[in-house]
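haha ok so turns out i had the wrong file open the whole time. this is the CORRECT one, sorry everyone. sequence first:
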Amino acid sequence: MSGPDISVVICVYTEDRWEDILAAVDSVRAQSRPALETLLVVDHNAALLDRLTKEYKEAGQVRVLANAGPRGLSAGRNTGIAAARGDVIAFLDDDAVAERDWLRHFAEGYADPRVMAVGGRTEPVWASGRRPAWFPEEFDWIVGCTYKGLPAGLVKVRNVLGGNASFRRTAFDAAGGFATGIGRDGDKRPLGCEETELCIRLTRARPDAILLIDDRAVIHHRVPEAREHFGYFRTRAYAEGLSKALVARSVGTDKGLESERRYATRVLPAGVARGLRDFLLARPGGAGRAGAIVAGVLTAAGGYAMGSVRARRAGTVFTVAEIEGGSG
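then structure:
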């Protein structure tokens, strides 16, 4: 098959997602364009590591690995990158399933040798069966999904979204791996932005690099019931502000907040206006969506302010891994 060989990395950490993990792997194995391999990287959970090793003992294209770095998603991804044999490394969340042509669309994006990363579209699967009426689509990033305001089609972007993304191996040679200390590390606070920081660092190391999102590369991401409530919405928005402060410290506010400025000045005001319009037309959830957007902005801004203060006091709080390996 023409095009790059693609390794798929799925980072896992809890047995509570056992059925989700199996479904994620099955979706990779059912791809119209087969993956070279699937790597399951287990984050410091010996029981899960043993259980998955037994589950996939006879599956030659599925390898189970222990996170070789500190606890957290970034180190898990770096472990997968180092072990992967593919020319391209794709990442899939452990509670998501990919549509059949997911990898085919990723592969097509790399026909241009300047393309260093290709991301896709992530659709929410709500545990309750439907989107909460108050939950604005502009904030679907809260639950790890593609949000209203991102351009449609095949487009150049500043950064891809980590749960549905792929990178050339040479991207990590140029920029290093995911930074530890920015994203989720096993604690209770839902931090993020590690892929944003990596993508900005990549385009600085390779100014000619092109990063794409192809919205035909679709995955479906499960949203548990606990994340359908305003309490989680507020907690995640605050954590995003904390994470953005770390990204800005790493790469500067010009690049670190470039997309966020457009989002805050164009996308969100339009969302508030739609919510108020729906309220006046007596449509369900209109006032709630408008209020959630305002609350989300203020909460994220508060997190950013607090994160900026902490970052200045603590100095550098993250490290960038150098990736070695690639031969399996």
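The chain has ten helices and eleven strands.
again sry for the mixup
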